[in-house]
């Protein structure tokens, strides 16, 4: 835990010149950004410095700041760790979000009389000793396969207690007969011998290959001296398996040990960070991640943020870290080196190659996606006989429940993909009762009247969710604006996926397997989802508001704050006094809790 203190933006000169973490809250009490600082006053003040050359996103962030929460810590390194955990917990919209480690695979040596080695994604300390996490399932399986070739470790789930074995409860299975198990279930293998295999396997999982190598080498020589050449050959084959496995990940200099390597390649909007962990002369972890920049972060900030998370996931505590960039004023716990020559330089170059390859693959995927998008748009242009490629498509849908809270939505696709910043919600204003046709006329008219007045670019295609009736209503709106004939417009009926054109009595049927029809279906379904979601929010807000409006001292602004934070009446009722008071203050929180309690008693 840590002590938190709150400041208003106008009071930032009162901030302490100490290391810590700062959290920016907006007017609804939502945390929108978390950052760390060696000097809280200097760092936070820099956001409000008008002479600073901030980018647009930072300017937008500063405009939203209503309250600043700070937490003082002992050192910059503590601030870095706290920042990392808070970003993962709170996921503020202006922060880079890092993937949690819940989905990474581990190998576990179980806590049993005859332990098993199992793969798992859940780490429960009481169940055994865990190794990993591994960068991929394939890498984990390669290690597990090696261990099963070298040692006879059971795979069954039997409870091999001394009592059960002596009672003869179990019989050997096929694994025993094919030589993969020595039958501890029937007492055919002593516990000490089995445990020796487990200890050897544990050394491999730790990355210490020298101990099992020496074990096989000594046993091979001993068997050869006793003229037991078949057994000696078996040990030789196992030794060769270990050598082959080791050679795949051998570093240039086997004396290099307990080192982290972290490199970064940065572009305007994205950065790619590769992390490698070196132990006992071998690379036993390599992982590359992609980071999306949000506030024009520096390469040093991005690398430190990623490094803290990756070291936590892969449980590294080494001090020496090799990197490809200069790190100024690093946390005291870290010793960064930017090598210029030798084997350490080669390690950094290897890390950079991994990052470059990852970046190249991402770009290739994006390029393939663009080619596919263009193909689909050309197919849609052909199917609908359009004069222009439908780069920008807008789709309308409306929603009401028995005529209550009539609303509508418009979704915007660019290059065949949703552009959510252009999505629009509409309250139907001029229509009384459940009249979908009149509602469609209103919202289409409002949308394109505004675009014309603001001299904005019109779409290449308009799609209406519905059949001829809905389409005719939309055409009516375009006619009033003298836009009919300038923008292609169609309707898509859900039942048979029929495409309707204005003034054409017969629908067009596009092949059910056509990519162009799938694009139209995506548009229609997205518009419907967006409309329904908005309508539910309106109904929820109305019911929520009605329960709060009668509480003395609770006004519209307070209701909006609560709605923005808690989303539903159920969550507000379950909220504690502490949570409510942080959003709306102590007195109003007391009023709400008292009112809900009274209502429950009534």
TrEMBL record:
Residues 265-478 form the UvrC family homology region profile domain. GO terms for molecular function: DNA binding; excinuclease ABC activity. GO terms for cellular component: cytoplasm; excinuclease repair complex. Pfam families: GIY-YIG (PF01541), HHH_5 (PF14520), UvrC_RNaseH (PF22920), UvrC_RNaseH_dom (PF08459). The keyword Cell division does not apply. Residues 17-96 form the GIY-YIG domain. The keyword Cytoplasm applies. It is found in: Cytoplasm. GO terms for biological process: nucleotide-excision repair; SOS response. Belongs to the UvrC family. NCBIfam families: uvrC. Interacts with UvrB in an incision complex. This is UvrABC system protein C. The lineage of its organism: Bacteria, Pseudomonadati, Bacteroidota, Cytophagia, Cytophagales.
């Amino acid at each position: 835990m840590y002590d938190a203190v709150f400041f208003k933006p106008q009071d930032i000169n009162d901030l302490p010149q100490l290391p810590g973490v700062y959290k920016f809250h907006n007017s609804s009490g939502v945390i929108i950004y978390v950052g760390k600082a060696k000097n809280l006053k200097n760092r936070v003040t820099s956001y409000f410095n008008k002479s600073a050359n901030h980018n647009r996103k930072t300017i937008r962030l500063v405009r939203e700041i209503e309250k600043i929460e700070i937490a003082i810590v002992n050192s910059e390194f503590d601030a870095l760790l706290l920042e990392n955990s808070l970003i993962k917990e709170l996921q503020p919209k202006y922060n880079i979000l890092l993937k949690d480690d819940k989905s990474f695979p581990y190998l576990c040596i179980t806590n049993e009389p005859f332990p098993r080695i199992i793969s798992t994604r859940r780490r429960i300390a009481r169940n055994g000793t865990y190794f990993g996490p591994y960068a991929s399932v394939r890498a984990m399986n390669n290690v597990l396969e090696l261990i099963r070739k070298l040692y006879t470790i059971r795979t069954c789930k039997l409870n091999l207690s001394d009592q059960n074995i002596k009672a003869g409860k179990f019989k050997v299975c096929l694994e025993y007969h094919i030589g993969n198990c020595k039958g501890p279930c029937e007492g055919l293998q002593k516990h000490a011998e089995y445990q020796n295999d487990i200890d050897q396997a544990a050394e491999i999982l730790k990355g210490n290959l020298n101990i099992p190598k020496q074990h096989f080498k000594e046993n091979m020589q001993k068997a050869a001296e006793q003229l037991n050449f078949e057994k000696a050959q078996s040990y030789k084959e196992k030794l060769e398996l270990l050598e082959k496995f080791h050679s795949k990940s051998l570093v240039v200099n086997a004396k290099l040990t307990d080192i982290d390597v972290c490199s970064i390649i940065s572009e305007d909007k994205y950065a790619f960070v590769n992390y490698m962990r070196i132990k006992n002369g071998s690379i036993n972890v390599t992982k590359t991640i992609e980071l999306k920049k949000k506030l024009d972060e520096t390469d040093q900030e991005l690398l430190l943020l990623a490094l803290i998370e990756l070291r936590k996931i892969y449980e590294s505590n080494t001090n020496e870290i090799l990197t490809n960039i200069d790190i100024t004023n690093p946390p005291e716990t870290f010793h960064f080196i930017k090598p210029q020559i030798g084997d350490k330089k080669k390690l950094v170059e290897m890390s950079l190659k991994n990052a470059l390859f990852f970046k190249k693959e991402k770009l290739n995927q994006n390029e393939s996606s663009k080619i596919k998008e263009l193909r689909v748009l050309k197919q849609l242009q052909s199917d609908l006989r359009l004069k222009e490629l439908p780069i920008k498509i807008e789709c309308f849908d409306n929603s009401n429940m028995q005529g209550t809270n009539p609303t509508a939505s418009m979704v915007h696709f660019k290059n065949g993909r949703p552009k959510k910043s252009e999505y629009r919600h509409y309250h139907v204003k001029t229509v009384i009762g459940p009249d979908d046709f009149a509602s469609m006329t209103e919202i289409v008219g409002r949308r394109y009247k505004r675009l014309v007045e603001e001299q904005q670019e019109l779409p290449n295609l308009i799609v209406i969710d519905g059949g001829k009736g809905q389409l005719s209503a939309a055409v009516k709106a375009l006619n009033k604006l003298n836009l009919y004939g300038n923008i292609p417009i169609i309707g898509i009926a859900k039942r048979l996926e029929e495409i309707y054109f204005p003034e054409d009595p017969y629908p067009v049927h596009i092949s059910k397997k056509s990519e162009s029809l799938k694009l139209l279906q995506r548009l229609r379904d997205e518009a419907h989802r967006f409309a329904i979601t908005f309508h539910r929010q309106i109904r929820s807000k109305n019911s929520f508001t009605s329960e709060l409006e009668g509480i003395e001292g609770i006004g519209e602004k307070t209701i909006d704050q609560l709605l923005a934070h808690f989303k539903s009446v159920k969550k507000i009722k379950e909220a504690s006094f502490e949570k409510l008071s942080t959003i709306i203050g102590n007195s109003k929180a007391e009023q709400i809790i008292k009112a809900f309690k009274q209502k429950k008693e009534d």
